[in-house]
Amino acid sequence: MTENNLTPYASRAGIPERMKITGSRPAVYWMTGLSGSGKSTVAALAEKMLVEEGRAALMIDGDTVRTGLCRGLGFSPEDRHENLRRIAELAKIAALAGMTVFVCAISPMAADREQARAILSPAVRFHEVWMAATVEECAARDPKGLYRRAFAGEIRDFTGVSAPYEQPDAPDFTFPASMSAEECAAVLVRSAREDDWDLERLMRTMLDAAAEASAKIMQIYESTYDVAYKADNSPLTSADTASNEILTGIFRCEFPEFSILSEEEADSTERLSNNAGVFIIDPLDGTKEFLSHNGEFCVSIGFASGHRVRAGVIAVPAQRLFYYAAEGHGAYKMPIDGLTEDFTVGAGERLSVSDRRDKLIVAASRSHGDAQTEALLAANEDRILSTVTAGSCLKGCLIAEGKADIHYRFGAFMKEWDTAAMQILCEEAGASFTDLHGRPLRANREDPVNRDGFIILNHPASALTMPDGLI
Q: How far apart are CA 62 and CA 301, in angstroms?
């Protein structure tokens, strides 16, 4: 029998379906470096951190593989080449099964590392990671006593001593010996998370979708439109439904692995078991502001994974303005017309909360006042400089850019889709965003209602004194 008689059989399950279970996009971190440089130590830490977050991860250690899959192979150039080819094929199978894979193999020759890249790409994202400890630094550690024996001539073909090591020309990550294993692992975990979300593409798609929805909303805003009322007596316009159709259509096409929670769609419990992520959407946040024609309405898009909001976009159609944020990357403001083909996360004006702790500027709702807020402000009037009102999630935007300092919201009026994008924007600008009891808001809940209200503070010291019995 020859290779001509083989017929590979394709799986009927694709990456989106597996991602909903594992939460991981196929990726391999190929960790190269001398013996003792810390490859396995760092990989084991990163693997553990991801698994504890509920993500699928696997470490493939070069020494361990040689006791099984590659048992019998020696250390000649030919055997090393075959050893690494087998490891790459194994890593590909594991990654396509829905895992983030960390390969720990000295892989001293650049040609072998390029072979691994060719085997894995483009189906799997390949990251070359160089543990850049020198021979002297590794020999000083010498956890297995191998360098002592290699220098004594007891071990032949020992990489870095009696066999060559070709340093990577342009690795994706370089970790010098001065970095701790914990620091290195944290960098890889953050990268793995962003691989799972496909952060640059995710953010660009969210911005593009928000821009398209904004244009449609303004087209309707400047013409005639229909108004209906939901069961809770809140208004629903043709702009709400048109924006929702645009947003959900784009996200379902571009990211079928993610679920959608939208104000204007029937909820599905499928999102609760989706470990990949969920878009949390208010297609027209501030419908009352839309109807009053004051321009203070938004398109609000959050993205959550692991019950945390990881990214968000707030578009203000009437101002042709974006606010956006991504976890660990900061919060930004930019014109909608400033979105270019070469956009990368970090474009625009970086936002930061004010440093005021007293004589505070309160952001208040334009359309939804309540007795509790009035009582709170009255009890703390000596600490308040002024109050500014704004519709929709623009209150959070004011705090993120330092134009206001605090916002309190009592009761269970607001839902996740009202707050998700605003939450990540404020947090990345330096604010805290909690419920009225100081607890973080959990994303993608079974009940999307924020039943314990929420508080946005530019600084913990800005918290107002709560009168007895108010909550």
A: 43
